[in-house]
Structures are given as structure tokens and as C-alpha cells.
Design goal:
Elements: H1 3-13, E1 18-22, E2 25-29, H2 30-46, E3 54-58, H3 63-74, E4 78-82, H4 88-97, E5 102-105, H5 110-117, E6 125-128, H6 133-137, E7 152-158, E8 166-171, H7 172-186, E9 194-196, H8 204-207, H9 209-214, E10 218-221, H10 229-238, E11 242-246, H11 248-256, H12 263-268, E12 269-275, H13 281-291, E13 295-301, E14 304-311, H14 313-317, H15 324-328, E15 333-334, E16 339-343, E17 349-350, E18 354-361, H16 373-379, E19 380-381, E20 384-393, E21 399-404, E22 409-411, E23 414-416, H17 418-425, E24 433-441, E25 445-453, H18 458-468, E26 477-480, H19 494-505
Parallel strand pairs: 1-10, 3-4, 3-5, 5-6, 9-10, 9-11, 11-12, 12-13, 25-26
Antiparallel strand pairs: 1-2, 7-8, 13-14, 14-15, 16-17, 16-18, 18-20, 19-20, 20-21, 22-23, 24-25
Bound molecules: adenosine monophosphate (AMP).
The site of adenosine monophosphate has 17 residues, from strand 13, strand 20 and strand 21.
Length: about 500
């Protein structure tokens, strides 16, 4: 069954149960959410959008994000949720590449959306998500469109290694497998439960809306639209059976905050699923002590949404187990519905006691990259998705990630590809050579640092980045250096540069 059909079924079953809330206040029952989704589908159709068209959502977390997502699916169209922190140029690229003619933006993202649309090669209609209610209420609910399991549901744009984002095509079948993985392996969900979306809906939290809606649980959007520890505590007083998806940075903030969760608040929390970036074992242990056995870890990527390995609540909480420490430092074992392997340096595919690029196969793996057969052919070979992550699978099947082969930097759960930042810095006339690395940071996981040669001033480079890329990708430190460490082939040795950086920090 596809997502709109699930909404239809759940609305029949629990018409009056809360489906959507802003903070403590319910804004839609399942019956109301179904009507609004069907009206939004009508609005899209009236504006000329057709089945299979890609519809963008570029917004902070807000209840109408969920309504729009389901409205798009009700109309058989493809949702393209886009990171609300992207720079207008980056957004414009996605709008062009995805052939997106309708973009829903929230109050905070309207200006960036407008700037981006001015740069697109085709007409894009912009809609205000925060002023949608009246417009939608005036429409006649549309008939739900039938879709096939292999039809596209979600186009998930990831940052590309070449600096250009790629659109992972997620089908209804992929979402189905992702939802099954959550419900069977991460945590069961009952109709009285809810998910608090304190992490961006354009990423993991939004994907987790799917299993929760299917079970009749409520989607709760914090009034702040994001992660605020005090607000979260008050929400935990009100809501129970709570799931949350959180980047490790968020878990650490919660644990280190002055706000101590009460017994009741802790009892209302069912599971915090962390992932998207490495979490140090020490931090996981501290979180376990503070929050109790509520933590599960997942390792996934846009290309295999939320579903490669899972470190379950039991394993994380199993302090008395002999291998507990090692397991806490791992990303868990494969979800039952996927096959996990590594490709070793000699090209062999190994399932145990081996190290190499992490490979995954199964029904959850994307269909390919949108309009990019070359990238698809590089990523999926003989049915195996090549993740670009380097890991070690132990004899008991637990996977430990060692490095990221693509030199990806993960800061506060957001992916930053060095090349993207390097390309911008190299446009400055007084920069000769540049290399961008991640520096370990207790708060953000990593922060971006740029090493460069040439006589450019740090302040000018910072101004250049502000002008050209999203703020979260901007280096926190610019270090002028006489020459960059390079191999015989002239390739910058990032590992040596990281050592130099670590030395400078002492
Ligand atoms: P994205 O496609 O934005 O979800 O990013 C996926 C990448 O984030 C993966 O390829 C990994 O490099 C990293 N990642 C995801 N989950 C974890 C995890 N639990 N631990 C470490 N890194 C992770």
C-alpha cells in the first residue's frame, strides 16, 4: 500500500484521533488530514501539476509540511523536500535539475526561495506554506490517485562528491521497506504514540513520519520548529509514547543541558533514534545514563533511507554484556531485510571479518539517481549500493564505520562535501591552493576548516562563502599555510592535513 492509501485507511479507522499537532495543540484529526491532503491535491491539479510531477518543499518544520507531503502523494506526484538551510544558488540547482515547477516555502524561507526562482531556467510557482489553510479549505477534495510500488514518492537530494547534489529516487516500495524496518527492528508504534519532529522534516525525521502515520500515531511539530531542550521537556509532559529522530549533536545537547528531564518526562519518551553522523561511544554511554534505555542508533543514507544497520535499544542498554563497549562504538548489525557486505581493497565482496567500502542491497535501496545514469551506474553495481563509507564487519555481523571514503564532513548532522567549499574558495584571485577538512568538535561532531595558500585574507574568504554557499557549510577557521601536504601525484593528502590541524590545536 502506498502512503496516501495508508492515510485513507487510517482515517477510516481512527477518524477522530489526533494526526497532527503544533506543540501541545492538535491541528488535525486523521479525518481532517485526509480531507486537507485531498484538497491540496486538488489545488495542485488546478494549477496544472500532473501525476509524476516533482513538487518542492523548502521549509522549516511546520504542520503544513506534513499536509503538503500527503497532498502531493494523494495526487500521485513526487515530493522533493529540500534542506531549508540551502543557499539560493543551491536551491536553484535542485529546482532546475529536478524540473520542479511548484515550490512550497515557509515564512522563513520565502526570500531565499524567491532569489532561487529568479535564477531558474523555467517558471516556478512559489506557494506560502504558512498561508495555505484558507487556500486549501476552498478546494474540492480530489480523488486519490493510484500508484505502483515502483513509482517515485520522494526525490531525496544529497550533496554530491563533485559539489553538485544528486537526487536519490525513492519509490513507494523503498518507503515501505523503510517503514517496516522501523516498526520491526527499531521500535513498534501504537496508535496512542507520537513522533516529535525536532529534526528537519526534509531528512530523517520526515521519512519517519511514514511509519508513524501508518500506525495512527500523531505527528508533533514543536512550536519552535526545531530542537529546543526546554520546549522538548514540556512536550514530554504532554505527549507519551514519544519517538524522535536526532543527530548525535542533538542528543549530546539534551544530555549536557541544564534541563533535567523529570521521571514522567523520561517515562513518556519511548525512543530517540540517533544517526546521520558518528556518535562517540563515550557520548552514547552518557546519554544512556541520563535518558535510560531509550536510545537506538541507525546507519543509513539517502540512497538507502534510514535502513542499513541498527544498534537496538537492547544492545545499547546491555551494559552487562561482554562486548558492550565494542558494540556501542559500532553502528549495529544489518536490518533483517537488507544484505550487508564490504568490498575489500582487492575488490572481493565479504560478509564477515573484513574491511572495505560498505555495500548494501535490498528492496530499500533507491531506484537510482534522478536523470543521472552515470552516477547510478557508479553507485549501484550488480545490485549492490556502494555507500562510499569505509567499515569493518566483525564476526558477529556488527559494522563499525572507520572513515568516509569521500572525505565527507558531518557537522551537526549535516553533510558537507569539502570539494563544494573548495571550489568556491578557489574562485578568489588570491587563493592558490586550498583543502577543506573536518576538525573534531565536541559540540558539532566536526567543524569545517579551510587550509589555503596565497595572500587572501580570511575575512574576504568568509565574505565570499557567505555570498555563495549555505551558512552551515562555511569554514569556522581559515588557515593560511606555505604549502599543502601532497602526494607524488600532486593530490592533497587530507589525512596529513588533519594531523597538522590536530597538532596546531594542541
Ligand atoms: P545522508 O544521505 O544525508 O543521510 O548521509 C548519509 C551519510 O551519513 C552516510 O553515508 C554516513 O557517512 C553518515 N552516517 C549516517 N548514519 C551514520 C551513523 N549512524 N554513524 C556514522 N555515520 C553515519
Amino acid at each position: 500500500m502506498a502512503e496516501a492509501e495508508w492515510l485513507d485507511k487510517i482515517a477510516d479507522r481512527f477518524p477522530h484521533r489526533p494526526a497532527l499537532a503544533r506543540g501541545r495543540h492538535v491541528v488535525a484529526s486523521f479525518s481532517a488530514l485526509r480531507t486537507q491532503a485531498a484538497q491540496l491535491a486538488d489545488l495542485l491539479q488546478q494549477m496544472g501539476a500532473q501525476k509524476g510531477d516533482r513538487i518542492g518543499i523548502f521549509a522549516q518544520n511546520t504542520p503544513s509540511f506534513i499536509t503538503t507531503l500527503y497532498g502531493i502523494w494523494w495526487a500521485g506526484m513526487v515530493a522533493v523536500p529540500i534542506n531549508a538551510k540551502l543557499h539560493p544558488d543551491e536551491l536553484a540547482y535542485i529546482l532546475n535539475h529536478g524540473g520542479i515547477a511548484h515550490l512550497f516555502a515557509s515564512t522563513d524561507t520565502q526570500a531565499a526561495a524567491e532569489d532561487a526562482i529568479a535564477k531558474t531556467d523555467h517558471a516556478v510557482q512559489r506557494h506560502d506554506l504558512d498561508a495555505l489553510d484558507d487556500r486549501v479549505a476552498a478546494m474540492t477534495p480530489a480523488t486519490r490517485q493510484d500508484v505502483a510500488p515502483d513509482d517515485l514518492a520522494w526525490l531525496f537530494y544529497t550533496s554530491g562528491t563533485t559539489g553538485r547534489p544528486k537526487g536519490a529516487m525513492l519509490t513507494y516500495r523503498n518507503l515501505d521497506e523503510m517503514a517496516r524496518g522501523f516498526l520491526e527492528t527499531v521500535a513498534p508504534v501504537a496508535p496512542a504514540d507520537c513522533i516529535i519532529h525536532a529534526a528537519p522534516l526534509s531528512h530523517g525525521s520526515g521519512l519517519y513520519a511514514v511509519p508513524h502515520l501508518r500506525q495512527g500515531a500523531c505527528q508533533v511539530i514543536p512550536e519552535s520548529g526545531g530542537f529546543d531542550v526546554e520546549e522538548l521537556a514540556t512536550l514530554l509532559d504532554h505527549w507519551s509514547g514519544v519517538s524522535m529522530f536526532a543527530a548525535p549533536t542533538m542528543v549530546n545537547r539534551l544530555v549536557r543541558s541544564d534541563v533535567q528531564l523529570t521521571e514522567t518526562q523520561r517515562a513518556h519518551l519511548k525512543v530517540i533514534v540517533y544517526g546521520g553522523a558518528p556518535m562517540y561511544a563515550e557520548d552514547a554511554e552518557q546519554a544512556l545514563t541520563t535518558l535510560g534505555p531509550k536510545l537506538a542508533q541507525i546507519y543509513g543514507q539517502g540512497e538507502s533511507p534510514m535502513t542499513i544497520t541498527c544498534l537496538s535499544r537492547d544492545v545499547i542498554a546491555g551494559r552487562d554484556q561482554a562486548q558492550w563497549r565494542d558494540r556501542l562504538a559500532s553502528v549495529g548489525a544489518a536490518f533483517p531485510q537488507v544484505k550487508l557486505a564490504v568490498k575489500t581493497a582487492d575488490g572481493a565482496i565479504q560478509f564477515k571479518e573484513a574491511q572495505g567500502e560498505v555495500l548494501v542491497r535490498g528492496e530499500v535501496v533507491m531506484k537510482g539517481y534522478w536523470q543521472d545514469p552515470e552516477a547510478t551506474a557508479t553507485a549501484i553495481i550488480d545490485g549492490w549500493l556502494h555507500t562510499g563509507d569505509i567499515g569493518h564487519i566483525a564476526g558477529d555481523g556488527y559494522l563499525t564505520l572507520l572513515d568516509r571514503s569521500k572525505d565527507l564532513i558531518i557537522s551537526g548532522g549535516a553533510n558537507i562535501y569539502p570539494r563544494e567549499v573548495e571550489e568556491i574558495l578557489l574562485t578568489h584571485p588570491d587563493v592558490q591552493d586550498v583543502s577543506v577538512i573536518g576538525r573534531p568538535d565536541p559540540d558539532w561532531g566536526e567543524v569545517v576548516v579551510a587550509y589555503y595558500t596565497g595572500k587572501a585574507k580570511a575575512a574576504d574568504l568568509d565574505a565570499l562563502c557567505l555570498e555563495r554557499i549555505a551558512r552551515f557549510k562555511r569554514p569556522k577557521d581559515y588557515v593560511q599555510i606555505d604549502h599543502l601536504p601532497k602526494s607524488n601525484y600532486g593530490k592533497v593528502l587530507k589525512s596529513s592535513l588533519r594531523e597538522i590541524d590536530a597538532h596546531r590545536q594542541k
